[in-house]
């Protein structure tokens, strides 16, 4: 009986150790593409002003702020890796502009000299730090439209 109790106690301790090591599963951040202005208003001149009116926006619908460092916004022709930027919770929005500028908490700049998003249709992909696809935004050309909600 003593041997059986000793074996059961050892087994209970081993199971307890395993259970305390495993923590709760981490939920994926509530990030998604919000909208994009894929066609700059007016003539496409490739001026910095024109490039910066082409943008894509992320929204955080969760309650907690999320640090985006290492996340990527990907197009088939280019990839933007986000630096040390935190997007606020409860509707926080961050815009990624195509042209040059000084990054702020809400506005990031790709520093490209050419447009990224195709006016005839395209797909943007949001990838986690680990490289997993987290969200996509796909659009087709709409007559008279230059901006879409994702």
From TrEMBL:
Transmembrane segments: none annotated. Residues 1-27 form the signal peptide. Residues 22-141 form the LTD domain. InterPro entries: Lamin_tail_dom, Lamin_tail_dom_sf. Keywords: Signal. Pfam families: LTD (PF00932). This is Lamin tail-like protein. It comes from Actinoplanes xinjiangensis.
């Amino acid at each position: 009986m003593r041997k059986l109790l000793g074996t059961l106690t050892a087994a209970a301790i081993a199971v307890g150790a395993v259970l305390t090591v495993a923590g709760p599963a981490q939920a994926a951040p509530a990030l998604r593409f919000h909208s994009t202005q894929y066609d700059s208003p007016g003539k496409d001149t490739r001026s910095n002003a024109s490039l910066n009116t082409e943008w894509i926006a992320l929204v955080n619908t969760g309650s907690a702020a999320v640090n985006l460092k290492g996340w990527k916004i990907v197009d088939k022709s280019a990839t933007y890796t986000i630096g040390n930027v935190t997007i606020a919770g409860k509707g926080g929005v961050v815009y990624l502009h195509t042209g040059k500028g000084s990054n702020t908490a809400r506005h990031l700049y790709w520093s490209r000299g050419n447009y990224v998003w195709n006016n005839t249709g395209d797909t943007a992909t949001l990838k986690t730090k680990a490289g997993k696809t987290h969200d996509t935004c796909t659009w087709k050309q709409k007559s008279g439209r230059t901006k879409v909600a994702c």
